[in-house]
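Page 42, continued from yesterday. The earlier attempt failed because a stray header line got pasted into the input along with the sequence. Redoing it now with the clean sequence only.
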Amino acid sequence: MCRYGLPHLAWRSSGRHCNRIFRCTLLPHADSKEVRPVNSEILTVNNLHAGYDEHDVLKAISLAIHERSFVGIIGPNGSGKSTFMQVIARSLPQRDGEILLLGESLTSYSFREFGQQVGYVPQECEIKFKYPVYEVVMMGRNPHIDRFCSPSAEDHEIVRKALEQTGTMDFADRPITALSGGERQRVMIARVLAQDPALLLLDEPFAHIDIHHQYELIRIIRETSRGKRAVIGVFHDINLAAAYCDELVIMSDGKIRACGKPDKVLTTGLIQEIFRIKPVIDVNPTTGTPFVYVEDEWNLPAAKNVNVHLISGGGAGSHLISLLVHAGYSLKCGVLSENDSDCRMARKYDVPTLIEPPFSLLSPEKEEKLKEQVLDADFVIVTAMPIGWGNYPNIRVLENINPEKIIFIIPPGEVLADFTSGVATGTIKRLITAGAHQVYGPAELLEILQSGTNQNSSDFIK
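This time it went through. Structure tokens are written below.
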């Protein structure tokens, strides 16, 4: 849940009863202790145990986080990553062990002091009331504003800077409830940047954010860790974490299995054991950091003169690039951001790829080139990638080609990450209704590619 829930004027008048209304923890504005001196160790965790009901999720966790560091936590689902973040954010009590924040017990801090030192962006943050985005971001300044005082000119300047950094200034006056999931998550990141804490906790903060903003935000967050601050982030994408984090913590079954520099902890044996895959660990040609992908093994007949164009992003197409190249298909990719995992995989196999610079929108020239390539292709494969306005033209151009040669890979039960207010989903549904294929995985995909025909499916996710 959110750590703070009311804009400045609202909490001043509403009092302690607001805690029930907003289902979140408000920050008392009592006078705080004197400021503690900052040392090189921001967070120290010794033999931590925590969990739910009678079940221990975290078991004997010990960890030290230093200032000027960006630490990424990775691991399979259910490994305890989010539970660890909730304990550090004081949303879940510890059962045993010691947690020191700036050298003092985590529980010794008042709510206001804690808010001055720790900022938390959870996976989901529910705000039910129609507060303007600007006021929501101003909530991050609450721990720094004296009781019965209004925000200062400095507070407003900090809020404006956070809005600009996260690309949310354009909807500063819009109600938070009117935004998409990805836009709301960017606002939550803006709020925690405005809070200016010593320790920043991010629990899968980019899960709902389109690729265009994802890389820009992670760059900004990394830059903030270069001051006297530490950042801990939970990541779903191993390669994204390896490229931007100073250190990685690998968790499994509530325990820390490895901790250190990405090139030291991302080993073939450990990744295979933890994630139950057969990984290939390469080097990211752009960052020089480890790059992990799965080398699929298929007994495939040789493909003859079949031209395939792959539309993907965010790592959704990396394994397909490897698979299709080894199967002998004539493959092209794009349009992709230069920093994208799929782009790096395409370069590894020398696959012709349409590329745009990082953080840029797809240009009309590149869209026209994409249109030519999908028209020439025998098949166009589209993965279940996140779709925002930045990469929506990749989908829009498909309305210009024969839908029967389009193959959407959408696993059963998977929710399409659509950040275009449903426009992209509507386009995909129209294409499937018109004859495009929908398959659930590589096996069905290969059947279509090898046979050239298959019964069309209209079983699109609702």
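Notes: The chain is about 30% helix and 20% strand.
Reminder to self: strip header lines before submitting.
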